[in-house]
Amino acid sequence: MILLALDLSTKASGIAVFDNDKLIHYECKICVSSDTLTRINGMVNRIKEIWNEYHPTHIVIEDVIPNDVHNNQSVYKALIYTQAAVVLAIHDLGGDPPIFYVSSEWRKKVGIHTGRGVRRDSLKQASIDLVKKEYGIEVSDDIADAICIGKAFLNIKKDGEA
Known about the structure:
The protein is α/β, with parallel strands linked by helices. It has one domain: Ribonuclease H-like superfamily/Ribonuclease H (Nucleotidyltransferase, domain 5, 2-Layer Sandwich). It has five helices and five strands; from the N terminus they run βββαβαβααα. The protein has a five-stranded mixed sheet, sandwiched between helices. The relative contact order is 0.20.
């Protein structure tokens, strides 16, 4: 099983690839254009390249909800457009539809405490710390989140929930 895990954004997307339980690739794709659609296109093109290199059998993506972006409609729309573009690209490549986890769901499955009073920056640091402990690598928060999203999928699959 090859798993592609994505923490999508229009500016900096975390990407992680697993071969069964083994992390085999990770990166942060950065797009700097001032045009949102150009950035989305850059993200989709990189994901297509990853697809063609690794041929994932499963894809998991962090889902976005309005609260994640403090109800900022323009940011929310950009993230939804990014998700839609990625889903369509995967469809065109012949892949199955991705699985989506909201951040609280994947964090719970990897043991990161969320809830009232827990700030975003401490959640990002918790992902970075978990990746350093589990995989012995130091990465950005975008990559750490992608790796943790993949780890959550693997934990859920192991528990028979997927």
